[in-house]
Amino acid sequence: MGRKRETGEKVQSGPGRKAKKQKPPSRFLNEEERGNKKQLSRRQKKRLKNRLEKATAIAEAKKKANERDLCKKLKNHATELVPKVGSKRKLPDSEDSAEESSEEEFGSALGKESDYNEKKDDDADVSGYTDDNKGWLKPKRRASQMEEEASDESADEDSDEVADEFGSSDDSGEDKKDEDDIEDDLLPVEKAAKKLRKKEEVNRKLAEDELKTNIAESETFILPSGQEIEKDTQTPDLAIIQQRIKEIMFVLSDFKSRGEQGRGRKEYLSQLCKDLCTYYSYNEYLMECLMQLFPLEIVEFLEANEVQRPVTIRANTLKTRRRDLAQVLINRGVNLDPIGKWSKVGLIVYDSQVPIGATPEYLAGHYILQGGASFLPVMALAPQENERILDMCAAPGGKTTYIAALMRNTGMLFANDANKERAKAIVGNLHRMGITNTVVSNYDGKQFPKVMTGFNRVLIDAPCSGTGVISKDPEVKVNKDEKDILRCSHLQKELLLAAIDCCDAKSKSGGYIVYSTCSVMVEENEWVIDYALRKRNVKLVPTGLDFGREGFVNFEKYRFHPSLKLTRRFYPHTHNLDGFFVAKLKKFSNKIPGQTKDKPTADNEGSGDTEVHTGREAEHK
Question: How far is Cα 250 from Cα 134, in angstroms, rounded to an integer?
Fold first, then answer.
């Protein structure tokens, strides 16, 4: 069975295999107990070493600077005590005590300086600088230079270890922190140098520009010769032509001092007209007319005609408000703004993510696409509720629907147009916009007084040459000539006289006629109004538009009625609107000047108008 174990004796067992390999357990230490010691990488250690060396060098430089200041102070004090510089100082017994007290006063911190003074006292005939001064006369190295050298060394050392430390986020943070510290604290001189270099560069450029300007002003522009003109007509170089246009405009602005000797102003104007026709593709007649209208801003006008006018819409106040409409369109991705302070219903559209002419709001009649300049005649007409109003040339219906909205669907509005096909567009817009007080007719405007008269207000947006909307129809540049302008002028005179005859001078609230065209030609605007003032009992009144240029009273050889300054002109390059003309007439009598007992017919009016027009045409030629 075996022997029994004696429990009283305990045999001490030796360490086992596990006990030999395992270390005694150690408790986990937090950061405070470890003393916040963070293991640094090799690169960080080198960088730390460089920073310590820099700090030590800066501290030594500061210490030397302080010692130099103390030396200066001690030297000044010694100068006060010594009667003569350069002679050996011999102090009497009475002054020995003062010297000892002065040395005790400076203290042990100035030991070196006091030794220097004692040595200076013992030496004879000391003047100027000696080798004893080299310790504090040696120029100290600037901190920025020391920093640059240290940074260059550290950069060379670190370049070899980029691959090892590329993925370390802690190192990248340390790098950024070091760069910020260097830029903020250690590079003030370099910052100032950079600012100085930038300032010098700007001044140099300004000086070059000023020199070029002075050279350009001092040089005299010479007109091209006949061979050069022929060469330009065969193979025109637009860049050369554009530069020549600028130079000619510069000369004409001060012709007396800048003009070429032996050349007249007419030669410059002739060359400018040819260059403008070539560069902007206008015919010669139209360019001459425009140069007469805009002698100083012809280039701005022509450039404005090359750019499309912004898209504008008018809110239909019968169905919505402008604020609500704008919010809805913005939600649909339309970028828009109010057209200006002068209109409460207009919106200008910059861009749209949806077709602006096919939105549910457009189909529901909440707004209509209408040019900003088309608002102006209706605003000048100022229709009132329960009135009888005629729109003689109404197609496609933008102005008609605006008048109906201002009348709030009250009264009676007659929309007439001579073109039957275009009159269909009036009907479509009236139905879509919810207009119920309008009658659409298809009569010749010149014969409309035979159909109906007695209107409170009449609006006539007469057909014209379209010289104010060249951006919409570029063909006007080459298609319109003198005959077209005079033909339009003759038609406009007949329509304006018919519109005046349709208006009732005895109307209590009205008796107003508004004449407008989308042309900038004087023959279609001031000339027509001046003719109506002589042929009918009407007078010009303010349009109520607080912007726009005044109409011409004197133009070239023409002299118009002084009241034509009440008319308004609008240009694309000044108002960012289509070229437009607006005039407001007030009829004060239904009698026709020079009329006999037998009332003349419309045919007689037309023949009389033709006779006057022929005389004007001869005068114009």
Answer: 69
131 is in an annotated binding site: no
88 touches 125 (CB < 8 A): yes
Cβ neighbourhood burial of 126 (10 Å; 0-12, 13-18, 19+): middle
- C-alpha 495/C-alpha 390 separation (Å) is 13
Q: What are phi and psi of 71, to 5 degrees?
A: -65, -40
Q: CA-CA distance, 395 to 412, in Å (whole number)? A: 18
Q: Is 398 annotated as a binding residue?
A: yes
Question: Nearest 5 degrees, angle CA 477-CA 478-CA 481?
Answer: 100
Max Cα–Cα distance, the chain, nearest Å: 168
Rounded CA-CA distance 615/621 in Å is 10
Contact 382, 510 (CB under 8 A): no
User: Is 518 in the active site?
Assistant: yes
Burial of 275 per CB tally in 10 Å (0-12, 13-18, 19+): buried
| Highest-scoring range by mean pLDDT, 55-64, 148-157, 317-326 | 317-326
End-to-end CA distance of the chain: 154
pTM for this model (two decimals): 0.61
394 is in an annotated binding site: yes
DSSP 8-state code for residue 83: S
**For the ranges 31-35, 95-99, 460-464, which has the lowest average pLDDT?**
95-99
